[in-house]
Amino acid sequence: MLEVLIVHPGGPIWAKKDESAWSIPKAMVDPGESDFEAAVRESREELGVDVDGEFVALGEYRQPSGKMVSARCVEADPQLVLYDI
């Protein structure tokens, strides 16, 4: 069975917006950090877990805001990252 982790943005702007708000987790890249390093760091900070494994690049897309997003996938134990919503 394939399970995909999606997240809902926080803060007052997103508080009452559910439709079309859910997406893959994203991270801001710090100076001197690669996009991959940022993703691993954010997983640790936001989910409280170190995601480990063979990461596969899925591609890039440009958001309506103009930001570029690089997407990757990794096989992981879903029990490590599930939250009750």
SS-based class: alpha+beta
What order do the helices and strands follow? HEE
The Rg value, from CA coordinates, equals: 14 Å
Strand order of the largest sheet: 1-2
How many beta-strand segments? 2
Quick one: overall form?
Answer: globular
Low-confidence residue ranges = none
Number of domains: 1
> What kind of sheet is the major sheet?
2 strands, antiparallel
**Roughly what fraction of the amino acids lie in strands?**
15-25%
Q: Number of helical runs? A: 1
Helix fraction bin? 10-25%
Distance between the termini: 20 Å
Mean pLDDT: 79
Notes on the structure:
The protein is of the alpha+beta class. It has one domain (1-10, 22-85). 15% of the residues lie in helices and 15% in strands. The protein is built from 1 helix and 2 strands; from the N terminus they run H-E-E. The protein has one helix spanning 35-47; strands at residues 56-62, 68-73. Strands 1-2 form a two-stranded antiparallel ribbon. A hairpin with a 5-residue loop joins strand 1 and strand 2. The longest helix has 13 residues, at 35-47. The two termini are 20 Å apart. The model has no long low-confidence stretch (mean pLDDT 79).
Quick take:
The chain is an alpha+beta fold and 85 residues long. 15% of the residues lie in helices and 15% in strands.
